[in-house]
């Protein structure tokens, strides 16, 4: 298997290789070029620091990297790794990292990150052999929420716009969001989202950022002083008016308040992930 970087490879060829590599994945996956271009913009993908594996002139393996600061440290995040079923057994992932790490170190990258579905017993041992260690668990929820009867709250309103005071909203977080849910990532595709602002007497006390097409809730939070007052339920009820099925990925396993809230809406928890990290 020959390895190259991907900056000179057509997006159509990358998309085809990705779909083939994920054809037997745990989750159904069939991406379009448009979907990948949009998602990877939010993931801060750099194709010149991503790797392709070639067999007889055909792209059979991919390791796609996003590059950005993570908690003040320049980081390479593994957006996607896959190998076509016919090309497996070539140790592509290990070889790709051997090929890539010197290039990353050259530009000052200090750590590698990735997310992997818990129970993926083929991928996890490979990452562990490379040197990745579990950093935290991430829970994923989906389904049609069961909304109990709401009460009117004096002075509270929810407006939908494309604006949000990010400096204020980030103070509502108890835990760092995952790579693709950071504000750094979300602002790359800001026009794709509906921003739900919870205002009390015109002051921001909560928000939700929702993919306008799919109903995926990319980020949500309530000001700590205003929790357990049904504001979260009010927010999800408003979102549910437009989207029958909601999806929320990558809730920190230690964020017990959010997890309890999402379970109270009877949303299912079909998969969880590990966030893994390797220091260079």
Molecular structure report:
The chain is an alpha+beta fold and 280 residues long. It folds into two domains: 2-109, Aminopeptidase (3-Layer(aba) Sandwich); 141-272, Gcn5-related N-acetyltransferase (GNAT) (Aminopeptidase), CATH 3.40.630. It has helices at residues 11-21, 33-42, 92-106, 123-130, 166-169, 183-186, 231-240, 256-264; strands at 2-5, 51-55, 58-70, 73-83, 111-117, 133-143, 156-161, 193-200, 203-211, 217-222, 246-252, 268-279. The protein has an eight-stranded mixed beta sheet. A four-stranded antiparallel beta sheet has the order 7-8-9-10, covered by helices on one side. Strand 2 (51-55) and strand 3 form a beta hairpin.
Question: Can you tag this structure with a few keywords?
Answer:
single chain; 280 residues; Aminopeptidase; 2 domains; four-stranded antiparallel β-sheet; 8 helices; 12 strands
Uncertain segments:
none
Rounded average pLDDT:
95
The CATH architecture of the largest domain can be named as: 3-Layer(aba) Sandwich
Q: How many DSSP-defined strands?
A: 12
What are the secondary-structure elements, in order, as H or E?
Answer: EHHEEEHEHEEHHEEEHEHE
Shape: elongated
> Given the helix and strand composition, which structural class is it?
alpha+beta
The level-1 CATH class of the largest domain: Alpha Beta
Distance between the termini: 25 Å
Helix content: 25-40%
Number of domains: 2
Largest sheet strand order? 1-2-3-4-5-12-6-11
Count of separate DSSP helical elements: 8
- What is the rounded Rg? 20 Å
The amount of beta strand, in percent, is 35-45%
Question: Could you say what the CATH topology of the largest domain is called?
Answer: Aminopeptidase
CATH superfamily of the largest domain: Gcn5-related N-acetyltransferase (GNAT)
Main pleated-sheet profile: 8 strands, mixed
